[in-house]
């Protein structure tokens, strides 16, 4: 369980990090919390010749409010999110999701940016940020670009990130009166989602659903938005029948995976159950 040898570089600026990535783009890995990268390196599933530790770059670990949005730096840890009073008030879905990740040790080291860049199909953050219609700031040799989270994840551990680009921040909305919840079925051993569902529901003046945004993780090779379910909820009174009928569509057109944690039939069933539960939990808040 000892990684292969590599050259370690700890830049003090995003510019320097990006230059180093560009110079070694075929054989370099970014290190944030190390909670996914280091196990892979120790098992020799990843053998980069160069590792760029971005942990000493200032300004990447803050949570700030900008108008009706919140900006979270890439190095903000799961634990920071869990403990943030600002997020509890302005975007409670994030602290709630953080509490479901692994254990205290992992939450103390693991970062939001690292999780998103890693694009693990069972990671919790991808579902939460889809439900929040978040945007991801990507910084590379040509400067910055903002990528909508729906367009960021491409498949198993794959995203639109180029090898010389960094995730530097995540922008989420202040959710105001909207109701949010994250529900997750996970084995105790790892805590990774077999199914994880994040929802954001906005009710209009007559109590009907005016906004529905849903992110689902653990079910297929990347987190996804069940657009048909969202459409079936919007404009309706969210009674038990409406929620159940919509939830039945949650895996439509999705290739549901099967693994040691469950068959695809089981995952489909869990997705419907946890989606229903997430909506009910959100409405009860
Ligand atoms: C025992 C255990 C249980 C876990 N359980 C859960 C769980 O229940 N839910 C969950 O969601 N996660 C879980 N995780 C994963 C954990 O959340 C990690 O923190 C996360 O996946 C990666 O974040 P990191 O900061 O540790 O990234 P790292 O491990 O440092 O990096 C991960 C990958 O992303 C790249 N990378 C990192 N940061 C950036 C960046 N800013 N820009 C570009 N590329 C970058 C790295 O090069 C690497 O390829 C678990 C991990 C462990 C060890």
Describe this structure in words.
- This protein is of the alpha+beta class.
- Helix content is 33%, strand content 25%.
- It is built from 12 helices and 13 strands.
- The chain has helices at 14-23, 37-42, 78-83, 85-90, 93-99, 104-109, 112-118, 125-131, 149-152, 227-233, 240-247, 264-283, and strands at residues 7-9, 28-31, 50-53, 63-66, 69-73, 135-140, 143-148, 153-155, 158-159, 166-173, 179-185, 195-203, 209-217.
- The strands form 4 sheets. A 5-stranded antiparallel β-sheet has the order 4-5-10-6-7. Strands 1-3-2 form a 3-stranded parallel β-sheet, covered by helices on one side.
- Strand 12 (195-203) and strand 13 (209-217) form a beta hairpin.
- The chain is globular, with a radius of gyration of 19 Å.
- The structure holds flavin-adenine dinucleotide.
- The site of flavin-adenine dinucleotide has 32 residues, from strand 2, helix 2, helix 7 and strand 10.
Structure summary:
This protein is α+β, with helices and mostly antiparallel strands and about 280 residues long.
Task: Tell me the layout of helices and strands.
Layout: E1 7-9, H1 14-23, E2 28-31, H2 37-42, E3 50-53, E4 63-66, E5 69-73, H3 78-83, H4 85-90, H5 93-99, H6 104-109, H7 112-118, H8 125-131, E6 135-140, E7 143-148, H9 149-152, E8 153-155, E9 158-159, E10 166-173, E11 179-185, E12 195-203, E13 209-217, H10 227-233, H11 240-247, H12 264-283
Parallel strand pairs: 1-3, 2-3
Antiparallel strand pairs: 4-5, 5-10, 6-7, 6-10, 8-9, 11-12, 12-13
Bound molecules: flavin-adenine dinucleotide (FAD).
Flavin-adenine dinucleotide binds at residues 29-37, 39, 54, 74, 101-102, 106, 110-111, 113-115, 117-118, 120, 123-125, 161, 166-167, 190-192.
